[in-house]
Design goal:
The complex is a heterodimer of chains A (295) and B (439).
Chain A lengths: L17 H15 L1 H23 L3 H15 L2 H16 L3 H31 L1 H16 L2 H12 L3 H26 L2 H9 L4 H30 L1 H5 L5 H11 L3 H27 L2 H7 L3
Helix pairs in contact in A: 2-5, 3-4, 4-13, 5-6, 5-8, 5-10, 5-12, 5-13, 6-8, 7-8, 8-10, 9-10, 10-13, 12-13
Chain B lengths: L1 E2 L2 H9 L4 H5 L3 E2 L14 E5 L6 H8 L11 E2 L2 E2 L5 H10 L1 E4 L11 H5 L1 H6 L3 H14 L15 H14 L4 E5 L7 H18 L2 E6 L2 H7 L2 E6 L2 E6 L1 H6 L4 H7 L10 H4 L6 E3 L4 H11 L3 E5 L6 E6 H10 L14 E3 L8 H6 L4 E4 L5 E5 L1 H17 L3 H5 L9 H5 L8 H13 L2 H6 L1
Parallel strand pairs in B: 3-8, 3-9, 6-7, 7-8, 11-12, 14-15
Antiparallel strand pairs in B: 1-2, 4-5, 9-10, 12-13, 15-16
Classes of the chains: A mainly alpha (295), B alpha/beta (439).
Chain lengths: 295, 439
């Protein structure tokens, strides 16, 4: 709510211009860091365009074949068959370009979110102080209605893919941090002690003991990051990131059930494909594989 | 010391406060008073129930946890006051550790796990895998190199843990409840293997356990811990026979002493000994003087047990005019090693007409265990267990004394009619059918 400036504070009729303060702070921030923000903007735009070109460049049948082979490698032939049918359906519904745009956005956002979340999670696991600071910040990031992020990012980066991507990163990051912190803390303390007892420095213990043992849980966190990114697709479309979200928004504006349903179905297909693939990757973690070895 | 206001709590403890007192400060005193020295090559067992501070103690020995106050010396290095890099160096070179729940890396193969310490030490790959394989061979896991820990049973996993510690090549091994998570039979097996390995490797081992029988089996010396304090340090026999306080006494009350006390702790000086190099006449004279029907023939200079001679044979030799005893020494004499447990003496003692000869590694006669001594040792153990106090030993008079180690070395007590007891010993042997046959 926007309030007029009041001369003095009346406790019986309290008025605080929290919104204006945040705007002022944000204005100062964008003014001061404009070059940095511009740099981020152009880097992300370039990355998105490149990834989108790679995904949408080849004929859709070639891409379906590639997705199917990936599915076969990480999971099973059944999954590969599902992949072929599901992605063919996307193409048949005329949603192929939108789907590739969304896929590019999600892959990029999830990669950025994960590469921020995992180190932060490790740091939080190592330091009680960091953990105590990070926890309320994560709560804040996750509970703040995601749409609110769109406003400042829109100001900073203008209409396009980047504000949506930044908002997605902020919204999708928390589970990645939480899962990583939990995963590292859950590693059997005796095994960590074993590393210490034989004289391993902390970096080696992290690399050789904690990360490998925590990997399945960290992967579950990354899976969550991807799923949350997908859920931001429609919102990001509101500030012009296009893709399947754009189709959904357009369907809503035109009150067109077919348009909305087709785009929605395509989002579901992407979600299932990404979820199953990442879950399969988690099952291929060395710890999991070693525990499944049988004579 | 854990928790808040640790410094203040330490000061209070030094001024005589109890751990309950400092608990009110919000501090938990895990280890309060634990001063001890471990000799190179010994197995030093720290025994205590859960909560007694033994796990904290062992973790302070390699600096996993830092003591709030006090020092830990390894050689000349004070572990409590070195920086992290020096501490890691000490851990790499001098101390290895075996953990209660094995603490293996599940994603590495058995041989890679065994090579872990060498990996940290920076040993080149081929060499460390070879050395790890050798260590696995040593603990009886040859051929399991490429399995994963999940494919192994608990006992085998701990063998890997042991191999990892051995491969590290350090002189000191810390074993934190190393066998506590294992089945009883596997546990016995591992204890035996550790003893066996120790006899050839001669490591300095600090072994933590809550199992008194384990402590007794393994420990050269045992430290009994209670509520953060070491209440007694001593050999198994000292702890058993001379408990420092009621707590220790209660603790040891139900220990099977026949599996702790050894032949050397109950043996008595051999009374009927003749010189194996002497002639039959001298032997006859000695035996007549001591009024015995049989005697141990022992080398004069080296005290080596040659065998046993019997009165009839000696008289025969004298009559024949033999000049040496060689023809009449019967080498088939029931002898046991001095470290044999009492439990293992019974069968031999029951079969042997003579007292069991106790010998050391080189067959030197150290003493004898007459059957009556063994039986009375048993009786006194039973009475101790029943009465719950060692005073019962004294009330049984002459019978009980043999269970106490100091009596194993002292001479007979005048008030107990010992001579009668001795003769009774040999009385039984004389009436043995085999003796009669020889007549």
């Amino acid at each position: 709510m926007i309030r007029t400036e009041s001369e003095s504070f009346d406790p019986l009729d309290p008025e605080l211009d929290v919104g204006n303060w945040i705007r002022d702070a944000y204005d100062w921030f964008t003014d001061t860091f404009q070059p940095v923000l511009d740099g981020i903007d152009s880097a992300l735009s370039w990355a998105f365009d490149t990834l989108f070109d790679v995904l949408s460049g080849p004929p859709f049948l070639v891409m379906i074949a590639i997705f199917a082979v990936l599915g076969l490698i990480v999971r099973s032939w059944q999954f590969a068959v599902f992949t072929v049918l599901a992605f063919y359906l996307i193409a048949a519904m005329g949603q192929w370009d939108g789907a590739m745009q969304t896929l590019a956005l999600i892959l990029l956002a999830a990669t950025i979110a994960s590469s921020l979340a995992v180190p932060l999670g490790i740091w939080a696991a190592k330091s009680q102080t960091v953990s105590q600071i990070v926890r309320p910040v994560l709560d804040f990031m996750q509970t703040m209605p995601a749409m609110v992020y769109l406003i400042p990012t829109l100001f900073a980066f203008g209409i396009g893919v980047v504000p949506g991507m930044i908002s997605t990163v902020i919204f999708a990051m928390p589970p990645g941090v939480r899962f990583t912190e939990l995963a590292i803390r859950q590693v059997d303390s005796e095994v960590v002690e074993a590393g210490q007892a034989f004289g391993a420095p902390p970096g080696r213990i992290l690399r050789q003991i904690q990360l490998p043992l925590a990997l399945p849980t960290i992967m579950a966190g990354i899976n969550q990051v991807i799923m949350l990114s997908l859920s931001m697709v429609v919102l990001a479309a509101l500030v012009g990131s296009g893709g399947l979200g754009g189709e959904v928004v357009a369907g809503l504006n035109a009150l067109s059930i077919p348009r909305g349903a087709e785009a929605g179905l395509a989002v579901v297909v992407l979600a299932i494909y990404l979820d199953r693939s990442v879950a399969a990757l988690a099952d291929r973690a060395p710890v999991v594989r070693a525990s499944q070895v049988r004579e | 010391m854990f928790g808040r206001k640790a410094e203040q709590a330490v000061r209070q403890l030094e001024e005589g406060a109890t751990s309950e007192d400092v608990a009110r400060l919000g501090a938990t005193a895990a280890v309060i008073d634990a001063s001890f020295e471990v000799e190179p090559g010994e197995i030093f067992v720290v025994m205590g129930l859960s909560g007694s501070g033994k796990s904290t103690l062992i973790r302070m020995l390699n600096g996993l946890w830092k003591p709030t106050a006090g020092d830990v010396y390894i050689g000349d290095t004070n572990i409590a006051h070195v920086n992290d890099a020096e501490l890691r160096q000490v851990r790499k070179e001098k101390i290895s550790m075996v953990f209660q729940h094995f603490a293996l890396l599940p994603h590495r193969t058995v041989v890679q796990n065994a090579a872990y310490a060498l990996d940290i030490q920076g040993v080149e790959k081929d060499e460390r895998l070879t050395r790890a394989s050798e260590a696995l061979e040593l603990v009886g896991l040859g051929g399991w190199d490429d399995k994963f820990p999940s494919q192994l049973s608990g006992g085998m996993k701990q063998r890997v843990g042991l191999a990892r510690a051995l491969a590290a090549g350090s002189d000191i091994m810390l074993m934190d409840e190393a066998f506590s998570a294992l089945d009883p039979l596997i546990k016995r097996e591992m204890q035996d293997q550790l003893s066996q390995l120790q006899s050839s490797l001669n490591k300095t081992i600090v072994f933590i356990t809550h199992d008194l029988n384990e402590a007794m089996r393994l420990g050269d010396r045992i430290a009994v811990m209670r509520a953060g304090r070491i209440v007694q340090i001593g050999t198994a026999e000292e702890v058993l026979n001379d408990p420092a306080n009621d707590y220790v006494a209660q603790f040891v009350a139900d220990v099977d002493r026949t599996r702790v006390l050894t032949a050397s702790s109950v043996m008595e000086p051999a009374q009927y000994v003749i010189n194996a190099n002497s002639g039959p006449r001298e032997a006859q004279h000695t035996m007549r003087e001591k009024q015995t029907s049989a005697a141990f023939a022992v080398g004069r200079r080296d005290n080596k047990l040659h065998g046993v001679v019997r009165d009839t044979d000696v008289v025969g030799a004298v009559n024949r005019g033999d000049t040496t005893l060689e023809g009449v020494i019967d080498p088939k004499v029931a002898s046991v090693h001095q470290d044999t447990y009492l439990a293992d003496l019974f069968a031999q003692s029951a079969e042997s007409p003579l007292p069991l000869a106790v010998v050391d590694d080189d067959k030197h006669l150290m003493g004898v265990v007459p059957r009556v001594t063994l039986l009375s040792a048993m009786a006194s153990i039973a009475s101790v267990v029943h009465a719950g106090e060692e005073a019962a030993v004294d009330t049984t008079g002459g019978d009980g004394r043999t269970s106490l180690p100091e009596n194993g070395t002292t001479q007979l007590q005048p008030d107990a009619g010992p001579a009668v007891g001795r003769l009774a010993d040999y009385g039984t042997t004389a009436q043995n059918p085999t003796e009669v046959d020889r007549d």
